[in-house]
């Protein structure tokens, strides 16, 4: 395929953009998802501590029950706030 016959939305051609978003916007969206996905250090510490307890399966089960999932325009969104509060409370 020559450059003259290439369509601006060809998915198999490097440098094309099928969803009309800018590179900066896609980078920002990916970075925002990563920022939201990272739990606070105290939550991580509580999770590590609780997972080493003899009854860790009970903590894990309750944590998973407290997660809420909603579908938004960008896909499924998982809310961790209640589950994280639980970990901090029982830690």
Strands, count: 2
pLDDT average, as an integer?
77
Ends apart, CA distance between termini: 61 Å
The global form is elongated
Which class of secondary structure composition applies to the elements? mainly alpha
Helix content: 40-55%
- Enumerate how many helices there are, as a single number: 4
Order of helix and strand elements from N to C terminus: HHHEEH
Proportion of residues in extended strands: 5-15%
Largest sheet: 2 strands, antiparallel
Over all CA atoms, what is the radius of gyration?
Answer: 21 Å
Key words describing this protein structure:
91 residues; mainly alpha; two-stranded antiparallel ribbon; 4 helices; 2 strands; 52% helix; 11% strand
Topology:
Elements lengths: L22 H15 L3 H11 L4 H11 L1 E5 L2 E5 L1 H10 L1
Antiparallel strand pairs: 1-2
Helix pairs in contact: 2-4, 3-4
Can you summarize this structure?
This protein is mainly alpha-helical and 91 residues long. It has helices spanning 23-37, 41-51, 56-66, 81-90; strands at residues 68-72, 75-79.
Task: Write up this protein.
Strands 1-2 form a two-stranded antiparallel sheet. 7% of the residues are buried. It has helices at residues 23-37, 41-51, 56-66, 81-90, and strands at 68-72, 75-79. The longest helix has 15 residues, at 23-37. It is 52% helix and 11% strand. Helix 3 (56-66) runs antiparallel to helix 4 (81-90). The radius of gyration is 21 Å and the shape is elongated. By secondary structure, it is mainly alpha-helical. The N and C termini lie far apart (61 Å). A hairpin with a 2-residue loop joins strand 1 (68-72) and strand 2. The chain is built from four helices and two strands.
């Amino acid at each position: 395929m020559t450059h003259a016959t290439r369509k601006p939305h060809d998915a198999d051609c490097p440098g094309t953009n099928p969803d009309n978003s800018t590179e900066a916007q896609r980078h920002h969206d990916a970075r925002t998802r990563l920022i939201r996905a990272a739990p606070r250090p105290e939550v991580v510490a509580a999770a590590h501590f609780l997972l080493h307890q003899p009854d860790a399966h009970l903590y894990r089960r309750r944590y998973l029950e407290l997660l809420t999932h909603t579908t938004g325009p960008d896909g499924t969104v998982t809310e961790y706030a209640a589950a994280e509060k639980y970990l901090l409370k029982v830690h």
